[in-house]
Amino acid sequence: MSQYPGWYYDEFKQIGVNYTDLEEVQAYDLRMQKLRDTEYEANRIRELLKIKNTDLILEIGTGTGELALRFSAYCRKVVAIDISKTMISFAKMKAESQRKTNIHFCNAGFLTYENYDEPFDVIVTQLALHHLPDYWKMIALKRIYGMLKEGGKFYLRDVVFPSFVRNYDSYFDKIITDLKISAGDEIAEETEIHIREEFSTLDWIMEGLLKSAGFCIESVECDGFMAGYICIK
Ligand SMILES: C[S@@+](CC[C@H](N)C(=O)[O-])C[C@H]1O[C@@H](n2cnc3c(N)ncnc32)[C@H](O)[C@@H]1O
């Protein structure tokens, strides 16, 4: 971060769960394999965004690389970035074992990645933007806008809190209690850390940030505290 001014946000410092710890990364990968159907997720995003085999895709906050690996079969090239070197090495190993040759991994993030190549057709980020405070989300979204082709698509899926809630204390208590029953203590504990220490924001703030960055929001899908936005440049 030495080339940035002293006031620039250090996105490499870990917020909430420490994703530079290999044990944490391995545990995350196992949990996600148990709880999520990443093949379904990738296919759904592919259909929603109408990804083509000529597309150049950027995935930000790739984590263990599941989405990038699946997209790579259906596009020209994926650039997959993450601020955690451990996550990037883990994802790279998976790609090598699957003989994927059209994924470029890079240790960088929303606020530091520089694209010296052609602009992207599609940019995707899942469960990562909440690591930045709201002002820096705005800077991240403006940078994403700048890296997309005219008419390019941006897909953002993240934890976003709904504004219809009357009592947030009981809302969050119920989320944790329900998660303990449906997904176990570990996920419930991780969610407590998320609410307490990470920077998930409210739906109206997220929509305002996307619009101020220049995006046209084509559709929003909400499922509890998860929201998925398809945006067009
Ligand atoms: C909860 S994981 C999600 C990983 C993956 N996208 C998924 O859906 O499973 C969050 C990821 O975002 C990464 N991350 C955190 N802050 C970031 C930033 N400023 N830029 C890029 N990635 C970031 C973390 O290192 C971690 O790999």
List keywords for this structure.
single chain, 233 residues, alpha/beta, Rossmann fold, 8-stranded mixed sheet, 8 helices, 42% helix, 23% strand, binds S-adenosylmethionine, methyltransferase activity, methyltransferase, Methyltransf_25, Ribosomal RNA adenine dimethylase, transferase
SSE succession: HHEHEHEEHEHHEHEE
Tally of separate helices:
8
Q: From the coordinates shown, what is the CATH architecture? A: 3-Layer(aba) Sandwich
| Low-confidence runs of at least 5 consecutive residues | none
Bound molecules: S-adenosylmethionine
Let me know the largest β-sheet: 8 strands, mixed
- Please tell me the total number of domains: 1
Query: How many DSSP E strands?
Result: 8
Pfam families: Methyltransf_25
Organism: Methanosarcina barkeri 3
Domain Methyltransferase: 57-152
Protein name: Ribosomal RNA adenine dimethylase
Structural description of this entry:
This is Ribosomal RNA adenine dimethylase. One of its GO terms (biological process) is methylation. InterPro entries: Methyltransf_25, SAM-dependent_MTases_sf. It is a single chain. The chain has a single domain (22-162, 200-232), classed as Vaccinia Virus protein VP39 (Rossmann fold), CATH 3.40.50. The protein has 233 residues and is of the alpha/beta class. The mean pLDDT is 95. It is globular, with a radius of gyration of 17 Å. It has 8 helices and 8 strands, in the order ααβαβαββαβααβαββ. The structure holds S-adenosylmethionine. S-adenosylmethionine binds next to loops.
